[in-house]
Design a protein that fits this description.
The strands form six sheets. This protein has a four-stranded mixed β-sheet with strand order 1-2-24-23. A four-stranded mixed β-sheet has the order 3-16-18-17. A four-stranded mixed β-sheet has the order 5-6-4-15, with helices on one face. It is built from twelve helices and 24 strands. 30% of the residues lie in helices and 26% in strands. It is globular, with a radius of gyration of 21 Å. Bound molecules: shikimate-3-phosphate.
């Protein structure tokens, strides 16, 4: 295996076997929440395992611009001291808040801002962010009493403080943890109870962190209720390893024959672990051990993955929210699994960093897979053999770029990924891990 890179291209050669051990970066969803929720706590919060990447650093910069002191404790920014300013202590920022490429920041932060006693906050981001819908938060926040305006349903988005919020019951039209979290955060600052009804269960990192901070959050079947809070008390937040980042190497080690990989400290919150469930259904050999739960209630485990041949499966709408970001990888795995795999109910993929139904279909077709995009997923005809290889254009989408690189490991001719810089949006260490695994291969030969 070899991963060579120039500024505009990453070239990944076919791999022998992937053997060794790795530690993924801190979970992106939990890292965002650690600075957003930590920033509103009473006093300092020690964050460990923080996953520093372009997205989460945009959250750090946003909170700093509103008066939250955040001090990195090490060079890799894996530990932070977040000096919370209290629930209503954010300051009007001088400049518009630049969320860069971070959809989670774009959707969660307005929930906190809407309940501030004063200030006028504008959120904007890159070209991809300006295409991502924010009406899904603007509408319910408006119903709570927030003053929020968007630009044709997208960023730039402006939220004004000083408008009292009232709790509502809101039925999410689309299963979205970002929208749910936004409303729960606004609910902390509202008068009365706020209930979010979910069509399907989505990741519950916000609920777990808020509960650990003393907020009154109650789960009912299909819904969650938050009551107004007087203050959040959190001393520390341990961020689990990112299962979405680990998933690239889980799929690599499953596909490449003779592989045997350990991945340490992975967050296995059931709302995120759908990738393990579906891969196991396809025959993958994934062991979980050393299970524990962090003080903030996030389950963590070490994973052991051995290569195996896969069989096709059906990915049904109910499981989609628990693996929404891993569906490109499931598509890659399914393209190497014997039989026809159908993925349904994933139409929200069209509104991610790219239209992922289209970009996955283009990328996998370009490297020799057989699949058709449908309105809400794909139909994939799997062949249990290496892909041909070729060139992948990620369209600026980090997860498509990394999926292309992993496809290269299980190809005949290698894969070239164009403009790989977008990988830094979520996983700046991705290429180092590829190279380290390459070194492990070289040592054994
Ligand atoms: C996220 C929720 C998901 C996911 C995104 C992170 C979160 O989005 O795709 O990468 O941190 O809450 P939706 O909730 O909009 O599906």
């Amino acid at each position: 295996m070899s991963a060579a890179e120039t500024a505009d291209r990453l070239h990944v050669e076919p791999a022998g076997a992937i053997v060794g051990e790795l530690v993924p970066p801190g979970d992106k969803s939990v890292s965002h929440r650690s600075v957003l929720i930590g920033g509103l706590a009473e006093g300092p919060v020690a964050v460990t395992g923080f996953g520093a990447n372009e997205d989460t650093l945009a959250s750090v910069a946003a909170m700093q611009s509103m008066g939250v002191r955040i001090e990195p404790q090490d060079e890799g920014i894996t530990a932070l001291l977040v000096h919370g300013v209290g629930l209503r202590g954010l300051r009007d920022p001088v400049d518009p808040i630049d969320v860069r490429n971070a959809g989670t920041l774009l959707r969660l932060l307005p929930g906190l801002l809407a309940g501030q006693p004063e200030g006028r906050y504008t959120l904007d981001g890159d070209a991809s962010i300006r295409r991502r819908p924010v009406d899904r938060i603007a509408l319910p926040l408006g119903r709570m009493g927030a003053a929020i305006t968007s630009t044709d349903g997208c960023a730039p988005l402006t939220v004004e403080g000083g408008h009292p919020l009232a709790g509502i019951t809101y039925e999410l039209p689309v299963a979205s943890a970002q929208v749910k979290s936004c409303l729960l955060l606004a609910g902390l600052l509202a008068e009365g109870e706020t209930t979010v009804v979910e069509p399907l269960a989505t990741r519950d990192h916000t609920e777990r962190m808020l509960r650990a901070a003393g907020a009154r959050v109650q789960r009912h079947p299909g819904a969650v209720t938050v009551r107004p809070a007087t203050g959040l008390r959190l001393q520390e937040i341990e961020v689990p390893g990112d299962i979405s980042s680990a998933a690239f190497f889980i799929v690599a080690a499953t596909l490449v024959p003779e592989s045997h990989l350990f991945i340490r400290g992975v967050g296995v919150n059931p709302g995120r672990a759908g990738v393990l469930t579906v891969l196991e259904r396809m025959g993958a050999r994934i062991g979980l051990f050393n299970r524990r739960t962090t003080a903030a209630g996030e389950p963590i485990a070490d994973l052991e993955i051995r290569a195996t041949e896969l069989i096709a499966t059906e990915v049904e709408p109910e499981i989609v929210p628990s693996l929404i970001d891993e569906l490109p990888l499931i598509a890659l795995a399914a393209s190497r699994a014997r039989g026809v795999t159908v993925v349904r109910g994933a139409d929200d993929l069209r509104k991610k960093e790219s239209d992922r139904i289209a970009t996955v279909a283009d990328a996998l077709t370009a490297v020799g897979a057989h699949l058709t995009a449908t309105d809400d997923g794909w139909e994939l005809r799997g062949v249990p053999a290496r892909l041909r290889g070729g060139t992948v254009d990620p369209h600026g989408d980090h997860r498509i770029a990394m999926m292309g690189a992993i496809a290269g490991l299980y190809s005949e001719q290698g894969v070239r990924v164009r403009d790989p810089a977008c990988i830094d949006v979520s996983f700046p260490g991705f290429r180092d891990i590829l190279r380290a695994l390459e070194a492990a291969v070289a040592e054994r030969e």
